[in-house]
Amino acid sequence: MTIPQYADIEDAARRIASMIHRTPVLTSSYFNDETGAELFFKCENFQKVGAFKFRGASNAIAKLPDEQGSKGIVTHSSGNHAQAVALAARINGYKATIVMPENAPRVKVNAVRGYGAEVVFCEPTIEARSETAQRVVSELGATFIHPYNHPDVIAGQGTCALELLEEVPELDAILAPVGGGGLISGTAIAAKHLKPGIKVYGAEPELADDAYRSFHSGKIEPVLRTDTIADGLRTSLGELPFEIIQNHVDDIRTVSEQSIIRDMRAVWERMKIIIEPSCSVPLAVMRDQETDLTGKKVGIILTGGNVDLDNLPWQ
């Protein structure tokens, strides 16, 4: 796999323009006061399927030759990527099969089916997901779309930072959460091309700090635990995103579970928008850590808003 370039992000932006929402950028005087910086929130919680994942899935699927896409699309996911692939496949007229663990939330399974995809269940392990997806690919001759270790997915995710910098070109830094690394790597490619002096920081939970450890050790470190409230960030780094992170990301910083919950609730209360726990991780970095961003203009990507309303972390 080849590392996507800025031109690939520009191509992706043109390719998916008619499929995605151009999401708003919001500000908050409360969080400006709390952080000592001027924050600009890129609201991907308002994206189709409720998450930035739709950008990458749309680009990867729309780019396929029709003779390939018509054989079907396959992925494995229990969350936002599953819904993103299901909807992007439907828009392009392709059949999607999504491998989901048996313990996936019913609301997410129902959403995937609602977008017209077939769901195949598997044991709730990474090995079972991969094996089941490969079996489906072999049976159907379908195309597998990886959630983050895929150049076209990374290029699609990079369109989020492209839009943000078009709207707020004077940004000094961008912060984004890190799970598999597709968003932060696409963000870094776009941001560093458009504004070479800009800082790009990844943000991670202390309980899922494999990207932080990988960044500092220079090799991909294993996920040691997956019990963070930020369920979208429990994934291990992909090889392609890790290579991009090493070359283009300035630092990765971690925060506690208490801070993640605190700032998720604060955004709900102060900004009146629904975000999922993963979104508040970069904001918590701004509030908790000593940064060099005091007085600076800082972009924060709010990655999604898919929340189980019956199980809010402060209830």
TrEMBL record:
Pfam families: PALP. PANTHER family: SERINE / THREONINE RACEMASE FAMILY MEMBER, SERINE RACEMASE. Its cofactor is Ca(2+); pyridoxal 5'-phosphate; Mn(2+); Mg(2+). Keywords: Lyase, Magnesium, Pyridoxal phosphate. GO terms for molecular function: ATP binding; D-serine ammonia-lyase activity; L-serine ammonia-lyase activity; magnesium ion binding; pyridoxal phosphate binding; serine racemase activity; threonine racemase activity. InterPro entries: Ser/Thr_deHydtase_PyrdxlP-BS, TrpB-like_PALP, TrpB-like_PALP_sf. Belongs to the serine/threonine dehydratase family. This is Serine dehydratase. One of its GO terms (biological process) is D-serine biosynthetic process. Residues 19-304 form the Tryptophan synthase beta chain-like PALP domain. It comes from the Bacteria. PROSITE patterns: DEHYDRATASE_SER_THR.
